[in-house]
Design a protein that fits this description.
The chain has 115 residues and is α+β, with helices and mostly antiparallel strands. The chain is built from 2 helices and 6 strands.
């Protein structure tokens, strides 16, 4: 369930393990894992003008380290690093209208607007 398949999940096959950004930001980043096989994953969500988009992809240890690295300055970089990783991976997307879909060639990740 955590990798592209013809049958789409009805609920996310991933569970959040550790949030990396605050819960009230327009973009959220967290470590997650597959509920079945326990593989490490990235979770990213964005609130785009009241439409909620969610993205998940499997990640390796090097990508976990990139995401866990502290931000360099006052502007958060974790969301940008998460979007970059998602753009290279097979990604499970849940949009506000169509529900779940797999993007196997890297996702065009929608970025939340600065409020």
């Amino acid at each position: 369930m955590c990798e592209p398949a013809k049958k789409l999940p009805e609920v996310t096959p991933f569970e959040e393990v550790q949030r990396l950004t605050g819960p009230y930001e327009h973009e959220n980043v967290a470590f997650a894992r597959c509920k079945v096989c326990a593989k490490a994953a990235l979770y990213y969500s964005a609130d785009i003008y009241d439409d909620f988009w969610q993205y998940w992809c499997l990640i390796d240890e090097a990508e976990k380290a990139v995401l866990a690295a502290p931000d360099d300055d006052e502007e958060p970089q974790r969301p940008a690093r998460a979007r970059e990783i998602l753009g290279r991976k097979s990604t499970l997307i849940k949009g506000p209208v169509l529900g779940f879909e797999w993007c196997v060639d890297g996702a065009q990740v929608l970025e939340g607007p600065p409020w």
